[in-house]
Amino acid sequence: MANQFDVVVIGSGPAGYVAAIKAAQLGLNTAIVEKWRNKEDKAVYGGTCLNVGCIPSKALLQSSEHYHQADSSFKDHGISLSNLKVDVKAMLARKDGIVKNLTTGVAGLLKGNGVTSFEGSGKLCAGKVVEVTDKDGKVTKLDAKNVILASGSIPVEIPPTPTDGNIIVDSTGALEFTEVPKRLGVIGAGVIGLELGSVWKRLGSEVIVLEAQDSFLAAADQALAKAAFKSFTKDQGLDIRLGARVTGSEIKGKKVLVKFTDSEGEKEETFDKLIVCVGRRPFTQGLLSEDCDVKLDERGFIFVDDNCLTTAPGVYAIGDVVRGPMLAHKGSEEGIMVAEIIAGHKAQMNYDAIPNVIYTNPELAWVGKTEEEVKAEGIKYKAGSFPFAASGRAMAANDTTGMVKIIADEETDRILGMHVFGLHASEIVAQGVIAMEFGSSAEDLQLMCFAHPTLSEAVHEAALAVDNKAIHVVNRKKR
């Protein structure tokens, strides 16, 4: 039968398309189902990440950072510019071009690896039958030996500020502003809120971030979170208000009035644009028939075991739709693991070594446990840090904010976590991931030779500082 497959993947985001490619490479007859359509009403692959998430947001972050540097720090390098201006439409066009290149590339990879593509909404039915409904309502049935659910996530909406797609927008709408808002409100000081707020702040917006939590970046190591909060507010001018709970909003003409409460009582602010980014939730609408035997947990995620197998035999789920951090690279690795398992190979994933990154400037990145977590778990530990202010390469780059921090087990010396706040933190953290995957000790990093001058030397020095052996900063007094 033409529509019989070894594997059918629903969703072509970083989890789904990677799973499909890997399955095909392992010799499995594979199909992928995707409903996403672009502005030209053409089917596109890549999911949220490539179309309206990771990639376009990083494109705008990079453009806005170039403008910010030209406006504020080029003079420190002896470079003078005049008549500097922002062309937002050109920035958006560049962003859209990058998205088109990558989504077209994914389509080429799927085709090149022999994956059969179906355009439409996929629904898992009993017996591992997948129904694909195209844009015209035509239904095609696929018989699968194995199904991989990779339907991703969507932004969470909150009743006080319903989005209208124009003045009040979600993270997707925030990537489409055609001009710089004079006054911008952001609800949520998480990864998305900080990144999007940074983009428009650099381009000239007055940005106020309203965060309901009383702590800043609670998931991050608090030593770095405190340093980041100071950098974002005092150095960059982001107005981040913690403990600010939004209670309502009202669109008045071309502006929006936002009401909120904080420790001082009820308050309100008026904005030209408002971005709502309070998190994301798994997208399962229309994905599962009642008799498919796949169960959801109490938070709406598809329930899976350690190998991403659902409660239905032969049906797996990966990426944002299952437990764990909603990260593209986490979903991709799950996709590879599941494809390997379906092909009969032994495979597992180390969830303790997944890096997290916030692409602000400076960037924040970490892998493993925070100091707060090891304390809470009662683990005897030692920690060392090294500031970029003592790095010759950071000085040359005119960007000395931040540090590298390493946490190790006091008894075994095994590295438990690495945390980076500073220039290129997203790249530097990979050294911590590699070290943890290989079970490295702090001493292992101490004995390695790092190139000079580099930012990565801060990793070497932080490892040395774990045992009070740092060379280029004065070590703390031994306890």
TrEMBL record:
In terms of one coarse class, where is the protein primarily found? cytoplasm
For this protein, the Enzyme Commission number is: 1.8.1.4
Sorted alphabetically, which keywords does the UniProt record give?
Cytoplasm, Disulfide bond, FAD, Flavoprotein, NAD, Oxidoreductase, Redox-active center
Name any cofactors this protein relies on.
Answer: FAD
InterPro entries documented for this protein: Class-I_Pyr_Nuc-Dis_Oxidored (IPR050151), FAD/NAD-bd_sf (IPR036188), FAD/NAD-binding_dom (IPR023753), FAD/NAD-linked_Rdtase_dimer_sf (IPR016156), Lipoamide_DH (IPR006258), Pyr_nuc-diS_OxRdtase (IPR001100), Pyr_nucl-diS_OxRdtase_dimer (IPR004099), Pyr_OxRdtase_I_AS (IPR012999)
Q: How is the cofactor bound?
A: Binds 1 FAD per subunit.
Q: What class of enzyme is it?
A: oxidoreductase
Show the catalytic activity: N(6)-[(R)-dihydrolipoyl]-L-lysyl-[protein] + NAD(+) = N(6)-[(R)-lipoyl]-L-lysyl-[protein] + NADH + H(+)
> Which terms does the record give in the GO molecular function aspect?
dihydrolipoyl dehydrogenase (NADH) activity
State its location(s): Cytoplasm
Q: Which PROSITE patterns match?
A: PYRIDINE_REDOX_1 (PS00076)
Domain FAD/NAD(P)-binding, which positions? 5-335
Which part of the chain is the Pyridine nucleotide-disulphide oxidoreductase dimerisation domain? 354-463
> Per the similarity annotation, which family is this?
Belongs to the class-I pyridine nucleotide-disulfide oxidoreductase family.
- NCBIfam families, sorted: lipoamide_DH
Spell out the note in the miscellaneous section.
The active site is a redox-active disulfide bond.
What is this protein identified as?
Answer: Dihydrolipoyl dehydrogenase
Q: Which organism is it from?
A: Saccharospirillum mangrovi
Q: What is the lineage of its organism?
A: Bacteria, Pseudomonadati, Pseudomonadota, Gammaproteobacteria, Oceanospirillales
